[in-house]
């Protein structure tokens, strides 16, 4: 009976144990806990006395009197018989059981002081949950999805549009990207041979970037594939990047200062170079390396965008003349002040456009100062544009690695950009760009689990992107995906300086210019109308 009561009491203590959800204890809670501890202590004392009394009743104690006819031997025989009937295992089992239950009760009594308390207050959690319930169900929220609008196209309509206009573009996209990288790297190998004995910048293998290499190429007719070629300083030189913010723009720009380094030790030991830092100009005039120096690409000791692009353009032309006999297509170069544009004409009459952009890497990061985008500067401008295109390309590759099979995230962006670029007239100064839609998608790829991008959720995710962008336009706030984004996964290669930086608002100018905000809103509504029209055209 006593053991059963003890078990029942232990179960009650465990089940009804008060669990605290805040690190603050009010006096009433402390008083109730102390009273409960006193009651449990008294109950344990009562049960212990009852248990001892039961043991005394079941076997004779040393204070019990013996009968007049019982001898000392009979007393010992009686004790042995009682012990034999009870059994040594029963006695040991009762002792271990009682000790185990006492330990459980003591642990449960001491658990409030041992447990790590919660780091938040339940009242604040309840308040936040009430605020979330008051939000509009049609808005896209982190970790959830919006309810499909009645006049928004369903998955069947979106799939039908995709098969008609974009299916052919996506089928051979990966193989075409591989071909483009192979062709450009073949040209670069020849360029490296042509410049190995000069004091001109050295060229590394190209890196694919932007829509084609991210997997959401939206066009069928004018196929343009963009690659970046990193530049390394020539022997005896170094590149020092000087960053600055240009007034009136959100992009960060920089200058590339070309500095000389001492090579006297290598010149004495190997004799394969000349130390330009400690040789006078007249000593270099008769040397074959003299005319091939990086200073011809500089303006005031800074690497010039236009001069460097024209030099690379000429170098690619010489390289193609040496390898053209190995290919069955024609390659012509298009004039450009900030990139090398190549037009490829195949025998199958398929046209292919390749744009090669030059860039200098910022330290150990994957951020580059690139030549593309600097056309707005004056002629011979030494201003280079900071670009995160390589990191964004790697982010899309990371998402594709963990996303479900036939994930719909790339398909969503392809449909939206195709409607924006091919179905709508292109204004002279467009406010809402392709990069804004891409940024909204990248934010949602972090906010929503990758399992929420299954093929059957195409319509919901497409509406989520539009809802996110609409809210950003209303609030005039769309943050850059990589700058100041603390939610990025640790294995996404972003420097700590960028991760901890102040977030960059891509819509900052909309808050200062009401006319620009009105135009951006109008452009967004036009895209929305094009999306809704897909339902009726199906």
TrEMBL record:
Residues 53-76, 116-149 are annotated as: Disordered. One of its GO terms (cellular component) is membrane. Transmembrane segments: none annotated. Coiled coil: none annotated. Residues 408-491 form the Mab-21-like HhH/H2TH-like domain. The keyword Signal applies. It is found in: Membrane. Residues 1-24 form the signal peptide. Residues 123-139 have a biased composition (Acidic residues). SMART domains: Mab-21 (SM01265). Its main location: membrane. InterPro entries: ITPRIP-like, Mab-21_HhH/H2TH-like, MAB21L/cGLR. It comes from the Eukaryota. Belongs to the ITPRIP family. PANTHER family: CELL FATE DETERMINING PROTEIN MAB21-RELATED, INOSITOL 1,4,5-TRISPHOSPHATE RECEPTOR-INTERACTING PROTEIN-LIKE 1. This is Mab-21-like HhH/H2TH-like domain-containing protein. It comes from Mauremys mutica (yellowpond turtle). The lineage of its organism: Eukaryota, Metazoa, Chordata, Craniata, Vertebrata.
């Amino acid at each position: 009976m006593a053991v059963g009561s003890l078990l029942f009491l232990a179960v009650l203590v465990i089940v009804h144990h008060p669990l605290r959800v805040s690190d603050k204890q009010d006096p009433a809670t402390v008083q109730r806990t102390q009273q409960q501890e006193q009651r449990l202590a008294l109950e344990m004392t009562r049960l212990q006395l009852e248990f001892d009394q039961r043991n005394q009743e079941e076997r004779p104690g040393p204070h019990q009197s013996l009968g007049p006819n019982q001898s000392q031997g009979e007393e010992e025989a009686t004790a042995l018989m009682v012990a034999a009937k009870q059994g040594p295992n029963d006695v040991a089992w009762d002792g271990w059981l009682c000790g185990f239950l006492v330990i459980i009760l003591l642990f449960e009594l001491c658990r409030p002081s041992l447990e790590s308390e919660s780091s938040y207050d339940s009242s604040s959690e309840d308040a936040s949950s009430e605020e979330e319930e008051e939000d509009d169900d049609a808005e896209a929220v982190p970790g959830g999805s919006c309810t499909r609008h009645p006049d928004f196209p369903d998955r069947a309509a979106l799939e039908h549009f995709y098969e008609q206009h974009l299916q052919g573009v996506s089928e051979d996209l990966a193989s075409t990207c591989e071909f483009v990288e192979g062709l450009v790297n073949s040209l670069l190998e020849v360029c490296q041979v042509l410049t190995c004995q000069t004091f001109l910048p050295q060229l590394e293998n190209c890196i694919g970037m932007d829509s084609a290499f991210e997997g959401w190429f939206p066009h069928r007719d004018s196929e343009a594939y963009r690659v970046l070629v990193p530049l390394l300083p020539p022997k005896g030189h170094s590149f020092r990047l000087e960053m600055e913010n240009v007034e009136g723009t959100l992009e960060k720009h920089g200058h590339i200062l070309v500095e000389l380094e001492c090579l006297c030790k290598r010149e004495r030991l190997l004799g394969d170079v000349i130390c330009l830092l400690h040789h006078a100009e007249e000593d270099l005039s008769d040397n074959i390396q003299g005319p091939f120096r990086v200073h011809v690409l500089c303006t005031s000791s800074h690497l010039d965008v236009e001069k460097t692009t024209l030099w690379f353009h000429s170098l690619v032309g010489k390289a193609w003349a040496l390898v053209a006999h190995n290919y069955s297509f024609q390659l012509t170069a298009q004039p450009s002040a900030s990139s090398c544009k190549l037009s490829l004409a195949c025998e199958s009459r398929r046209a292919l456009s390749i744009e090669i952009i030059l860039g200098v890497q910022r330290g150990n990061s994957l951020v580059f100062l690139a030549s593309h985008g600097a056309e707005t500067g004056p002629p011979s401008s030494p201003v280079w544009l900071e670009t995160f295109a390589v990191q964004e390309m790697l982010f899309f590759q990371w998402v594709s690695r963990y996303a479900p099979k036939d994930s719909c995230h790339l398909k969503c962006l392809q449909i939206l950009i195709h409607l924006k670029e091919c179905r709508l007239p292109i204004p002279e100064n467009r406010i809402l760009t392709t990069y804004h839609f891409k940024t909204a998608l990248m934010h949602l790829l972090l906010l929503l689990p990758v399992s929420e991008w299954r093929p059957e959720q195409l319509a919901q995710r497409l509406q989520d992107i539009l809802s996110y962008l609409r809210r950003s336009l209303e609030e005039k706030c769309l943050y850059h995906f990589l700058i100041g984004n603390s939610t990025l996964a640790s294995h996404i290669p972003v420097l700590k300086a960028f991760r901890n930086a102040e977030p960059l608002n891509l819509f900052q100018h909309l808050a200062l210019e009401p006319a620009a905000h009105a135009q951006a809103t109008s452009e967004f509504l036009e895209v929305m109308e094009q999306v809704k029209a897909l339902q009726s055209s199906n």
